[in-house]
Amino acid sequence: METENVKKILLEIRAGVGGDEASLFAWDMAKMYQKYAIKKGWHFSVIDASESGARGYKTFVAEIRGDGAYNALKHESGVHRVQRVPTTERQGRVHTSTASVAILPIVEAKDVQVKENDLEITFSRAGGPGGQNVNKVETAVRILHKPTGIVVSSREERSQHSNREKALEILRAKLFEAQREQAVGSVEELRHEQIGSGERAEKIRTYNFPEDRITDHRLGKKFHNMENILEGNLDKITESFNPS
Question: Which residues contact 154 (CB under 8 A, 6 or more apart)?
């Protein structure tokens, strides 16, 4: 399967080191990619999100559908680092936090075979902001793929069946990536290879708020007007990886 022609991708964001500030940064990243997708005319739908405090994400998973989505965003995978003064910081000190991003192509069922006996499926009530139970029916789905230990979940759909299908879609995407990168070794090594451990020293890009500067360490380039970029105007960065 040619991944360059993939029109459906999985976006996964995880807060790294930095406590609440890392969760807030994960929120900012999620909103940035959502706004970028809307500007590109792509479909963006949230699959699963684990919130942390006020306006923060521990984890965030979404599906993006549209022409050129994978090619535009595939270089976003890795550890993103933010340097800024948190709103709770009284002495004006700059804090450093991280969030990990993974971009995975979503594949058809025929491309990755998943055996029912390899799955451990559990159901729960879908939770809302602040831990509220917004659904009295157990529609949220969690799937453990026993051979690899991969755990996926979906709780944004309204029915148990729809969430199960979404969770399986995520699982196939992760298994497909594992098959593509067999030379890496184990699945755990694969995920470390793609999104890093979330440590501050492992970074592909730094967002420096005091200096209004984004530095992509792979390109060796600096981009300014950061607020504009965080509003979803990512083309100047993505096009640097895909010059016409």
Answer: 47, 48, 61, 140, 141, 162, 163, 164, 166, 167, 170
Q: Are 212 and 87 in contact (CB under 8 A)?
A: no
Q: What pairing do the DSSP bridges indicate for beta strands 43-51 and 140-145?
A: unpaired
Are residues 99 and 130 part of one domain?
no
Residues 99, 118 share a domain: no
CA distances from 145 to 24, 114, 168, 176 (A): 30, 9, 10, 13
Domain hosting residue 220, numbered range: 3-107+186-241
Answering whether pTM is above 0.85, one says: no
CATH classification of the domain holding 130: 3.30.160.20
**Helix (H) or strand (E) run with residue 4 in it:** none
| Residue 92 DSSP one-character state | -
**In this predicted model, what pLDDT tens digit does every residue of 206-234 receive, in sequence order?**
999 999 999 999 999 999 999 999 999 99
The low-confidence residues of the chain, meaning pLDDT below 50, are: 1, 128-135, 184-187, 190
Query: pLDDT tens digit string along 69-87?
Result: 999 999 999 999 999 988 7
